[in-house]
Amino acid sequence: MIRLGLTGSIGMGKSTTAAMFTEAGIPVHDSDAAVHELYRGDAAPLIETAFPGTVMDGIVDRKQLGERVLGDAEALGRLEAIVHPLVAAHEAAFVERARADGAGLVVLDIPLLFEVGAQDRIDKVLVVTAPADVQRERVLARPGMTEDRFAAILARQVPDREKRAKADFIIDTSLGMDCARAKVRDLITVLQPPPRNLAEAAG
After folding, report:
1. Phi and psi at residue 199, in whole multiples of 5°?
2. Partners of 128 in the β-ladder
3. What is the Cα–Cα distance from 43 to 64, expressed in whole angstroms?
4. In the chain, what is the greatest distance between 2 CA atoms, to the nearest angstrom?
5. Contact 64, 53 (CB under 8 A)
6. Cα–Cα distance for residue pair 169/126, rounded to 1 Å
7. Where are the domains of the chain?
8. 176: left (phi over 0), alpha (psi -120 to 50) or beta
9. pTM of the predicted structure, to 2 decimals
10. Which residues are annotated as a binding site?
11. Coil/strand/helix, residue 7
12. Per-residue DSSP letters for 91-123?
């Protein structure tokens, strides 16, 4: 089974691309969705201990937590030390379920793939990209986004050019949905091995 790591800087179209793999029937593990789940479960008491007052009724208040850690490298490091191992465990369980189900390819949507050193958990890397002006326009159109917040997020991400240099595959999402969807289909054809019975028959 091939584990394809999907990543890209903020505003590059990663979530949209992940959805295209899902539409094509490929199992996708969404790290952001896993964090949401953990913030309602295992991570909540640990985060409340580290950042008192950020958990309400057993659920992490993401806005309160964000205000506590954004721009504070030490606080962010403490949060990541709590969350990243839990997300990795969630992801590992997903991979094992997909393997047991006979999947030939899974996509692991990891926003900070290079930043957290997740390369050892994957076989190939797909980076989604777009020109800087397109990225900026997309991000600043998000509710609550500011220039300062955008700059702070970019500061903790590996630059796009470095991501592209480390990628096995690249999709430029600025070229349109149809182009991106075609690239996804081509990639699935390249990476997903044929069904076992067909492979055995061919042999």
Report:
1. -65, -40
2. 171
3. 15
4. 62
5. yes
6. 5
7. 1-27+105-195, 31-102
8. left
9. 0.86
10. 11-16
11. strand
12. HHHHHHHHHHTT-SEEEEE-TTTTTTTGGGG-S
Least Cα distance to 134 among 161, 181, 174 occurs for 174
Q: Where are the alpha helices (H) located in the chain, listed in sequence order?
A: 14-23, 31-39, 43-50, 62-69, 73-100, 132-140, 147-155, 160-166, 177-191, 196-202
Q: Are strands 124-129 and 59-60 parallel, antiparallel or unpaired?
A: unpaired
Q: Tell me, what amino acid is at 200?
A: E
Numbered residues of the known binding site for ATP: 11-16
Q: Would you state the structure tokens that stand for residue 201, as one six-digit string? A: 């028959």
Could you give the 3-state DSSP secondary structure of residue 179?
A: helix
Taken in order 86, 88, 93, 98, the sign of the CA dihedral is positive
Q: How does pLDDT run across 120-170, given as a tens digit for each residue?
A: 899 999 999 999 999 999 999 999 899 998 998 898 899 999 999 999 999
Please tell us whether the domain made up of 1-27+105-195 is placed in CATH 3.40.190.290.
no
CA-based radius of gyration for the chain: 18
Distance (Å, rounded) from C-alpha 65 to C-alpha 51? 8
* Spatial separation of the C-alpha atoms in residues 119 and 121, rounded to whole Å: 5
